[in-house]
Design brief:
The protein is an all-alpha fold. It has eight helices and no strands.
Length: 154
């Protein structure tokens, strides 16, 4: 489990847009997984299981509770984890800012499809929806990102 926490935290941060919420999301995920981890860890689907619990926990949080202001931009300290150079940090910050404009389901689809490199079928299974829904949400998300990019001055 320890070797997966960094990746889970990065995915959680992309979903929530906030370091503290990302840490809370990972903690909630680990609590949900803990009881069944012995069974799941032996499976070749352990990472898929973790991803599913992480995403469903994130989506259920957004439905059930109000966690305060939903971030539309990220603070400078949110980029502090990217230390490989200024250009990479700026690109990561730009990516996070653009993700913040997406609704939660579209953000989840984009993160799963492009950050975790899952197929449409795998994404649909993980989100518990049809492949058509994944395609539609992905299309809407990319259109929204493109329109947001065209409005941002160079």
């Amino acid at each position: 489990m320890a070797e997966r926490i960094d990746r889970l935290t990065r995915v959680a941060f992309l979903l929530t847009g906030d370091h503290h919420l990302a840490e809370d999301l990972v903690q909630a995920t680990l609590i949900r997984v803990w009881r069944k981890w012995k069974q799941a860890s032996g499976s070749r689907f352990a990472d898929a299981y973790l991803n599913r619990i992480l995403v469903t926990t994130y989506l259920s949080w957004r439905r059930r509770r109000w966690w305060g202001e939903i971030p539309t931009s990220f603070d400078d300290h949110d980029v502090a984890g990217v230390t490989d150079g200024l250009e990479q940090a700026l690109a990561a910050d730009d990516f996070r800012r653009r993700l913040a404009v997406l609704p939660r389901h579209q953000r989840a689809v984009v993160v799963l499809r492009y950050y975790l490199d899952l197929s449409e079928r795998e994404t649909a299974e993980l989100l518990g929806c049809t492949v058509g829904t994944v395609k539609s949400q992905n299309h809407k998300a990319l259109a929204r990102l493109r329109s947001h990019i065209s409005r941002v001055p160079e």
